[in-house]
Amino acid sequence: MKISLGPVLYYWSEEKLRQFYGQIAESPVDIVYLGETICSKRRSLNTDQWIEIARQLKAAGKEVILSTLALLEAESELKTMRRICGNGEFTVEANDLAAVNLRSEQGESFVVGHSVNIYNQGAMEVLAEAGMNRWVLSVELSRETLRDLQQHRPDGVETEIFAWGRIPLAYAARCYTARHYELPKDDCQYRCIDDSDGMLLNTKEGEPFLTINGIQTQSAQSCNLLGAMEEMRELGVDVVRISPQSMFTPEIIKLFDQVQRQEISLQDGMAAADRFLPYGGVDGYWRGEAGIDKTAKTDDSSVI
User: Are 190 and 246 in contact (CB under 8 A)?
Assistant: First the structure.
């Protein structure tokens, strides 16, 4: 299986983004997704600058994919989406059906991101006919659903799994970060740049529950499917995705690579992963349980 790095879901400065992708260029990751997928007001980098970084990563041997917004609300956002889809150099991750339709009209292939729901064979076939060459399993679906879908996967279509990171749960027209600061969305003062991994939301009992990330709501705990690597391989998964976090991302990529190459045991890998999970790991959705369920423990004898 290949290892991919998803787009940065948070608002980081240009300096932080450039430093981050400089480190990623030297990592063992195979595929890198680039671009803003949450809010068009986050303009640390413009499209030309994203393409500049894409070329640098391509020169470092990475497969690079440009990602589009998950929720389009204005003509200016459609204009940016059209430019990304027509870049003529890199393939695109379509995170809504507007990008799917445009790439299909252009006769170009595309990746379907996890924010586009593929729940059944019919949806998969329609998107494959439109030009889909890879799809990302919706984060709330289980391994059993994946097993069923894999049996009907069209030829030439790869499967990718969101395997690490705070889980994207919902998108809304309202910006919850702006609301937290009692600001209107149109005058948000870009406050989400203050929270490099989103803003934690606790329950009344003080337990970590959700993460506020502008218009996106995420889990507080991080998805951790490191322990399911062999299971995913048996299910025919082609790519496992790591979602960037502000700290330890290169180390997490290295850990997945070491486990896959059998350089360390799965048990040791799972123990090491705990250091990179500020609020613990969960894998409930994967097992068909509540998403917040803690990551299943791995037997000492489990080795990939």
Answer: no
